[in-house]
Amino acid sequence: MPSIFSDFYARLRAALAAGLAAAPEPIRKRKIPSAPGRGLAASLDSSGIVAVALFIATVVAIVLISFAGVVNRTLAVLPNQLASVRISAAIPFSYESAEKTRAAQERLRERVPPVYRIDPEPLQRFELHLSELVASLAPYALLEPAQRRTFLVESTAVYNARGPYRTLPDDVALLAIGDNPQARAQLLETGLGILRAIHAQGISDPEDIGRDPGSRGLRLFQVLRPDGIVATRPVDTLEDALTYLRVNLAAEENNRARASALYRIFREGIMPNVVFDRNASLAREAEAMRDLRPVVVTVERGQTIIEPDSRVTAEQFEMLEAHRAALAATTSPIEETMRLSGRILLVLGMLAASLIYMRLEDPETLQSNSRLALLALVVIVNLALVRATYSLGSLDYFLERTTIATLLPYIAPVLIAPLIVALLIDCGSAIFMALFISIFTSVIWGGRLDLLVLNFLASLVAIQGVHRTTRRTRILRAALLAGITATLICGVLVVGLLPFLEHLFKRTTDITLLELTDFNHPLLRLMQLEAPGTYHHSLVVAQLSENAAAAIGANPLLARVCALFHDIGKTAKPHYFIENQHDGDNPHDDANPSLSALIIKAHVKDGMDLALRHKLPRPVIDVIQQHHGTTLIRYFYHRAIQALRRRPETNAPLPPLLGICSDSLSVQDAAASIPEQTYRYDGPCPSFKESAIIHLADAIEAAARSLPKISPQHLGEIIDQIVRERLNDGQLDEAPLTLAELNRIKESFVHTLLNMLHGRISYPAAIGAK
Q: What are 680's strand-pairing partners?
């Protein structure tokens, strides 16, 4: 290092000595004049002062570009953006969290009940219309009997048109008939008095206020009284108000027919009068908010604020901003000076390493200020472009498109300086330049080691591409190769890490699932050879499940793969399953029903063992375990009941139907004596959509093949029956399926089975065949 800087000092002393020794004699004319400025250019090219100035300018420029405004507390981290680095608290601090306070306000606002008020207008409108109806009936007594019916019909029609009324003329006649006007007035006043009491209590419409329409009884409301005080009080529903009206009218009127007619008239006045008061509700919320204090968050030193490779939430961003403010408030001038000194030392160290390299490998460049200026210029320009790319992240376009913003570090133009140096100087200097640019690019983006390695490798490929090049087009090819290399490196890393990450985080990608659909998979080949009937059954279940999953927006590929492997456990004892019995020999005929049920249930455990041995994904193993749930193995359960009901002293054959038998034990007694759990699968029940679909498809495929005739009606009936049985048995209680999704699944099953099990044309026998 001293020898390097001694060159600068020696050149500086030589330049000063040459300037002092120069005589003030006039310059003589030469016969061959030199080019203007050639002596000055040569002097500047070898000047030590210029070299030192160039060195200082380079240090200052790199420090400003790489560090000014780019520190750990001012990294470009934005809400909803994928963070590239971990940021931890450098100091303990506390702050008032607006986000948490806002969340607390929302929770409080949800707990503040709405305020309602009693609206008198519905009752006033009804009283007006009713009084107009009574007044219009005054001429009734003066009319001829033949005209009265028409008069009542017309008066009732006019009354009903004034509001949503459905009053009948026969009921209105009650208000017109009679010679005692005082009695009629008393009758009206009684009905209106009951109505006023009901309206004063309040009438609510469950649908308007968000209450379950099927609920009954009073409900407590926050009601604004006329004096401005909000009180909690019960309010009637429409149904309760009508009941109250009927009961009270029946108590006031002894004549049952008159009471019913009055009820039909006055029930038109029962209408909701409890309305939401927005201003009073807002006032109540504001009053509650006044008592809510801001949420204060305390952060300890070293506590993680933002995790790498995770989206920044609004609360995390707020904490980061508070951390920045705390750092700015507590940072002393000495700390700032120390931090600046550290950055300057980093730049000095990198430049010193560059000088050492040039001293050893390229001393000619070290002796030429023009070459040094070229190196400094390309470094400064390249880093400036990288910094400009970094600054693009603060633009509104990238703030709104955070996914695109995460690509900015990978499109930064880091190849410019290495390529120029490789073309103009040599590849050795270009490699050192590539390392230099990669290091400071990593620094600009918060010290990301992945960027350093990726950019350096891409630069090496680009430098190799322009080595000893004689055509300009090879520069473009070299840059393209560098980009491809960076892409391939990322691809290789992803491909290599993906299986490990899938296993570590228990996730299964569609890539892995698609690989498992290969029919040459060892387990599928084993099933084809050992249990061909089960293999065909699995293919049909896979098609049913895939189509049904697509119909409800689940994962069709996951459903298909899980269905292909769901019965692999049957390969352990294939001849015990009906679909693999082609010679008519059924080993269950001579076996005890409980033993047969145990063998049937064992295929679930055998399938899980095979899946674990072949390292199948977790969802496939879950489906193998869940595809029967805890369903009852009915065939062997019924055989056990029949065997128990058989008389011990006879060898009578088993009855064809349960319940039609004269044996000593009844069906109920026999069933009570047999533990049902022995004949149920161990479960668990399906816990995700694809598993539930396969659970249903497995049973429906087997049932559909037993149908003597395939038609949409027959298929629909058997599918409805199976789904209903599974629902009643609780097999789908843990599956996140809605009734609407179940309907779409059933429709998909019908459509798929009709296409699979369609009939064929009966071809006539060949002519001449005997």
A: 632
Helix (H, G, I), strand (E, B) or coil at 583: coil
Q: Report the relative pairing of strands 219-224 and 115-118 from DSSP bridges.
A: parallel
DSSP 311: B
Contacts of 598 (CB under 8 A, 6+ apart): none
Cis peptide before 684 (omega within 30 of 0): yes
Q: What's the pTM? A: 0.45
Q: Is 305 exposed, middle or buried (0-12, 13-18, 19+ CB in 10 A)?
A: buried
Task: Specify whether the backbone of 277 is left (phi greater than 0), alpha (psi in -120 to 50) or beta.
Answer: beta
Strand 203-204 relative to strand 230-237: parallel, antiparallel, unpaired? parallel
Pair 729, 683: CB distance under 8 Å: no
Residue-wise pLDDT for 339-351, tens only, equals 778 778 888 888 8
Secondary structure (3-state) at 160:
helix
pLDDT at 351: 85
Taking the C-alpha atoms of residue 287 and residue 475, their distance in angstroms, rounded to an integer, is 71
For 767, phi and psi rounded to 5 degrees? -65, 130
The tokens for 609 are 């063992």
Are 560 and 602 in contact by the 8 Å Cβ rule? The answer is: no
CA nearest to 85, candidates 448, 389, 438, 386: 448
Using an 8 Å Cβ cutoff, are 372 and 54 in contact?
yes
- Nearest Cα to 274, choosing from 312, 314, 224? 224
Burial 5-34 (b: 16+ CB within 10 A, else e): eebbeebbeebeeeeeeeeeeeeeeeeeee
| Least trusted range by pLDDT, from 128-132, 545-549, 660-664 | 660-664
Contact 439, 427 (CB under 8 A): no
